[in-house]
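Hey, can you fold this?
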Amino acid sequence: MNKSLLLLATWALLSSSAWAQHSDKERQEDAARHRAMAAAHENAAKCLESAKSEAVCTKELQAACRGLAIGKYCGMKHAH
């Protein structure tokens, strides 16, 4: 077996076992965080549709997502 295939197989095994370690409670908490992030993004979209500036909407999104996601765009960044 070559090194690349061995590394890939090892990564796949470790990745799958990491997912298997999540309890039902952790999965439910993760789902709740995703819903909260989705709600924050929906509110950001509504803010952008309103007369508010992009800077204001970004600050509101950042406040709503504090502690939920990684990064200043609530776990999601897109191109302009």
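Oh, and this one too while you're at it.
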Amino acid sequence: MRKMSVRKKSRAVVEDMRREYRLDCKKAKPNPFASQMGAGTVVVALDPDVAAVFKSSESVNALLRSVISALPPGSKPQE
């Protein structure tokens, strides 16, 4: 029977933010979607399981507006 080699364990991924990130702006590309966003537009990233439920931004906005209208007057949403 041959011995199986044991792979070295990779270093643990550090989840913390670095103090500084060095970005090379020469390699930056313009945002192809910038023209689609109007003034005052806020972009929010959805988790994949949530994004799978919605087919468009309009459907997300419709649901959020219905939730907002169901809130008691003067209440603030939890962060």
